[in-house]
């Protein structure tokens, strides 16, 4: 329920996880999408990603590919089960 008392399309979980965030959608599988991301990274301090292990490497957007081009960028990779180990390739989501 919104401020006006009407039903909204946003859940309480969504609102709690995304409060005060701004976002855009970028198709990193496209050349145009990757170019847009690189324009953002040129000005960014931090990149936080939560793709499955190896997901960004397919697009040349993993830490190894970005560290030389953006040496001051703090690259934070959030996974459900870590970067290595028997469950590393499993997806982790929400409250899991």
What do you see in this structure?
This protein is an alpha+beta fold. Helices cover 23% and strands 8% of the residues. Strands 1-2 form a two-stranded parallel sheet. The two termini are 26 Å apart.
Q: On the 0-100 scale, what is the average pLDDT?
A: 89
Total strands: 2
Low-confidence stretches: none
Helices, by number, come to 3
Helix percentage: 10-25%
Estimated structural class? alpha+beta
The helix/strand series, from N terminus to C terminus, equals HHEHE
Task: Sum this structure up briefly.
The protein is α+β, with helices and mostly antiparallel strands. It has three helices and two strands.
Short descriptors:
96 residues, alpha+beta, two-stranded parallel sheet, globular
Give the topology:
Elements: H1 12-18, H2 31-41, E1 46-49, H3 63-66, E2 74-77
Parallel strand pairs: 1-2
